[in-house]
Amino acid sequence: MLSINGLVIRSGLRVGVARRIKAQVWDVAPRRIDPAELEKEYQALNDALAHIEAEIDLHLQQFQGPDSDREILKSHLLILRDPELLKQVKSAVSDNLESAAQAVQRVFAGITRSFRNLPNDFFAQRASDYSDVGHRLLAALTGQEQEDLADWQPGQIAVLNEATPSQVSAFARHNIPAYCAQQGSFTSHASILTRSLNIPAVVALPGLYDKVQDGDALILDAIDGKVIIAPDQPTLLLYAELLEKYREQESQEQKLSSLPVQTAAGRQISLRCNLDLLTDLDQPARLGAAGIGLYRTEFLYLGKDELPPEDLQYQIYRQVAEKVAPHSVILRTFDLGGDKLSHLIPAAPEANPYLGCRGIRFSLAYPEIFRVQIRAVLRAGLHGRIQLMFPMVADLKDFLAAQKIVEDCRAELLAEGVECASELPLGVMIEIPSAALCAEELARHCDFMSIGTNDLVQYTLATDRNNSALTPYYVTHHPAVVQLLKTTLAAGRKYGKPVSICGEMASQPEYLPLLIGLGFTDLSVNPASFLPCKRIILRCDAALDDLCQNAGATCSLAALEELIYQKLKPYYHP
Length: 574
What we know:
The protein is built from 23 helices and 16 strands. It is of the alpha/beta class.
C-alpha cells in the first residue's frame, strides 16, 4: 500500500481501479520529402487543421460548463489559426523539405519547450495548451490513435502524467468518474475545466505514474488530497465506510441550505464563500451563503498575454456584484508579486518573494496598475455591495497610502464625468503579525478586517507553508497565532468594526469550534467546506464559550491540543 499526497482540484471521494493513460509518443519517421510532394504535405496540414477545428467546434456545442470556460476551448482554435505559427510550420515544409508531421512536431515542441523553460505559471499554462494542440494535430497527420476512451469501464479511475484541456473535456463526455495526475496546478486550463465539469481530481502527486499499474486498486481521496495505491483490506473497508458516509452526508447536507446559520445557542453566524473564478459564481446562492467573503482578483492577471484593462475588470467586478446581490462581496486587490507578472512587467528577481514586493507593496510600487483596478472597482460599486480589501498590509501607513489612491481615483472619475460609488468600505487583511499587533490603530481607520490565517501562521512561526520538510513547525493552532486572533477580534469589537476569518483555518473542521468559542461570528470558507462547516456551527452550544475562554498565549501548545482534539472533538466529530 502506498499513499501519495497532492493538490485537490475538485473535491470528491472515489474507490476503483487504476487505468493509466500513457503520454503519447509520436512515431514520425525523419525523412526529406521530394519538392514534388510539397502540395501533398500542405494539403495534409490543411486537412488536419480543418479536422481539429471541427472537433473543437463539436466539443463547444456539447460543452455544459459556463461561457467563461468555453473560452479555454476557443483559445485552442486561436492557436490553430495563429498565422505566425502556421507560417513557421509551412516554412519548415518548404525550406527544410520536412513532412507536415515532422514540421508540426518540431515547431510545437520548440514553442512548448521555450514556454516551460520560463519560470512563470503563465508560461507553463501556455505550454500545456500548445502541447495539447500539437498532439491533436499529430494524431490527425499520422493516423496514430490517441488514447481511446470509448471502452472505459465503470469504476476505472484515470491516471496520467498531466491532464490537458482536451482530455478533461473527453473525460466528461465519456463519464469518467475521476482522475489523478503526477503534475498539475490549481489555475491551469485543465484544472479550470475539471471544476467546471465537476470531475473529482487530485494532481501534483510526486512519482505517481511510475508507482501505479493498470488494474491496481486505487482510492482517490479528493477531500484530504491524496491517492492510495493498492490499499490493504483494512484501508479498503475503512474507505468503503467513508464513501457510504460521504454519499449520505452529501445528501443530508443539501437539506442544510434552507436552515439559518446559527449556533445551537442561537448566535447568528455570517458564513460566506471564498472564490477565485467566475465559474464558481453560482455556488454562494446554491449553498445559501451570506455572500462572498473573499474574491481573489489576481486570477484576472494570471495566464494573460496583457494586463487586464479597466473596462474588462469593470465588467467582471460588476458581474460578481450583481450575481451575489443582495449580499456583499469583498474584493481583495490583487495579491501578486513581480515574479508572477515578469512576462508583463520588468521586475528584479527576489531571493525571497514571500517577504518581498507582493500584495499591497506591489500595488503601491506600481500605482499605474493599481489605479486601473481601483477605477474599475469604483465603477462596479454602483451595481452591488462591493467592499474592497488590501492584502499584506503591515501597518496603518500601508492602509492610508492605499486609501489615498482610492480617493484620488474617485475624484478623477468624477472629473471625467464617469459615475462611480460615492462610498466603498475599505478593509485590510490581517496576515502579518505587525498588522495584528497594530489592529487597534488599523480598526480606528478602516471599515473592516479579515484575517488570512494561512500567511499569519507562516509569518508568525517563520515557517514556509509550502516546504513539506517544515510541516511539523507549521502549527495553525500555535498559542502565538491564537493570541493574534484574539487581539485582532478585540480591536474590532472596541471600535465596532467587523472582523472575519477567510483563511483555511475557518474551513478546517477541528478549528471551527475553537473560532466560534473565541467569539468569531463572521467566517468565509471554500465552497466545498461550506455545508460541512454549517453542520458544525449548528452543533455549537453555550458550553463552547467556557471551554475556549482561556485559549491564547497564556495557554500551552499541549493544553491547546487537548482542547481542540479532545474537549472540542464532539462538535466536529460526533
